[in-house]
Design a protein that fits this description.
Elements (H helix, E strand, L loop, with lengths): L1 E2 L14 E7 L8 E7 L17 H14 L2 E7 L1 H7 L1 H14 L7 E5 L9 E5 L7 H24 L5 H4 L5 H10 L10 H4 L11
Length: about 210
Amino acid sequence: MVRNSDEAGDYTYPGYVVCGVDEAGRGPLAGAVFAAAVILDPAYPIDGLRDSKKLSEAKRDQLAILIKKHALAWCIAESSEGEIDQINILQATMLAMQRAVSGLTVTPTMALIDGNRCPVLPMASEAIVKGDDKVAAISAASILAKTARDAALMQLHAIYPEYAFDRHKGYPTALHLARLREHGVSPVHRKSYAPVRLLLPVTDKVSN
């Protein structure tokens, strides 16, 4: 089931153990795609939860600490750049979401997914367009996925400082594209993405 962003309605699910699920990093040219699943504790509401893209980095970091402290369960998972190249970014994102949900220490009976499609899961699920700004559990998952991916890109920056991952987090900015042209493709770049693929030798190209 998909609920569109302009649909009003009650986003509570009485009788269900609800987890929110969201991803971070579908658009970048490098690094893994991350997903998180969160089951919030109704006894410990967390103020300020919303779409991670609408929060400052400092606020995301503060909220991530609170989520990990007070949630009933949370899990962060990823699909590698190699998996993205092998099965495409959509399927890799679905795989990361499946891994996040399956890694929860509390088993949910309903999964609410940000976006317009759901991964295959063993419990009921609903996709909610722009759910990361409508459902607190999805907002929490958005924040955990985003902060985890940003931290991973800082680690990649330490290994490959020439690409300035600390500044663009792998997204196809003018700076990133310039560094790609200057230094070539690194082992953590997504070779199936056009700006990267165009710089590869013919023998190394990955088809979509």
